[in-house]
Amino acid sequence: MPLIYILALILVIGAVAYVVARRRASIATGAKQHSRPQYHGWWAFILATGPAILFLIVWSIGSSIYVERRIEAMLPPAADGAFASRSIELGLVQSLANGLRRLDAETLANLPQTFAELQPLLAAKGVALASDTKDYMIPIAVAANATADNARLVGAGIALLFSLAGGGFGISQVAPRARARTNVERVILWALLGSSMIAILTTIGIVLSMLFETGHFFSRVSPWNFFFGTVWDPRFAGAGAGEAEGQFGLIPLLAGTLYIALVALLVAVPVGLMSAVYMSEYASRRVRSIVKPALEVLAGIPTIVYGIFALVTLGPFLRDLSAALAGGSPFIQGQSVFTAGLVMGIMLIPVVSSLSDDIITAVPGAMRDGSLGLGATRSETIKRVILPAALPGIVGAILLTASRAIGETMIVVLAAGVAANLTLNPFEAMTTITVKIVNQLTGDLEFNTPQTLVAFALGITLFAITLVMNIVALYIVRKYREQYE
Predict the structure, then answer these.
(1) What is the arithmetic mean of pLDDT over 46-72?
(2) Which of 8, 272, 310, 350 is the most exposed place for a label (fewest CB within 10 A)?
(3) Which residues contact 399 (CB under 8 A, 6 or more apart)?
(4) Which residues partner with 232 through β-bridges?
């Protein structure tokens, strides 16, 4: 039985429990009721659906792990020497099992015993499998599907029993002095608390998973060579060579990341800040209503579009322009730090403008009026009163924008290239940490070599950099922020 049908049945049982409990509470007589009838109905609904759904989630996770262990136990010991890793073999069996679910019952009853005969049947259903799939995987996949179906059927039966028992218990609890409202509010409180903890737990899980894999990487590659190396060349080891072959120097990637982000900020901060000053201090309401939405349209453009613009239009234009100015070979490459930073800066203009506009607008009007009343001009008021008052918030906005620039990927791939160079010339190609993370994790890879594990070390480094920048931004805002009435 599909999971969606089980959930639908549980919700139907919960709805019936709600109606019965509410009706029973409405016709109850005697002492004054503690809770209104709808609270009794919702308490019965929660008892009928909550435990059953929680059990269904736990059962689904456990049954998936059990089926995976069953597949591993059924695989032959050597697997004909065809696979370098057990996990690849397991993935092929699971893909085959998922494909077999697309076949009808008649085909499954007369299932071919060779993959060459089975492949056309699967292709007719739109299922494409790897050519490495072997004949011995077919009965294993069939047995895995049977085990998963049995586990799903048992889980569905137990979940429905939980739902019926919970709904019946909730209906039986209806009484004039039953504290249904207190129980419902307590459940809602715990649900809100759980929702607020999701982001925290997710962040902790991401950090811990990256730390564990980073530890595996540093057990094979020296941290000194990683953090202070100046050459990035993570070549895979040759036959008979040590598995730590290659050079994993972080410095070229870190320099490219910071360099491109710096160029982007040099473009985005002045333009964004001046546009914020204009819209908050000079623009009329009509002009502001037109200019600000038009400016923020840039924030809705996907970053891949900016990257294509840089690759197809801006990069060749700058290269041809430099060639014309130099009278020969161009001094600006088609993919360069300058091109990537310029396009990224255009993308970040609405971020700086919007944040700075909100901060400048929050400065009390009394400070403007006082400065103008003392004889200062509007420009002097902006320079000597408004901007100093808003400076902590503007600095925080700039640091947050820098964090966004450091984490950008697609623009860098298309506009700056993938060459891990170490140079001060902004007209040459460089790359960033995020680009190399994508490169190292592209394709069907196993996380058992330094060439793939280095992606986690790069990720935790990037996480630490952005975390420090965000902490500094919050510190500056809180320390130097002035409190106004």
Answers:
(1) 89
(2) 8
(3) 469, 470, 472, 473, 476
(4) 248
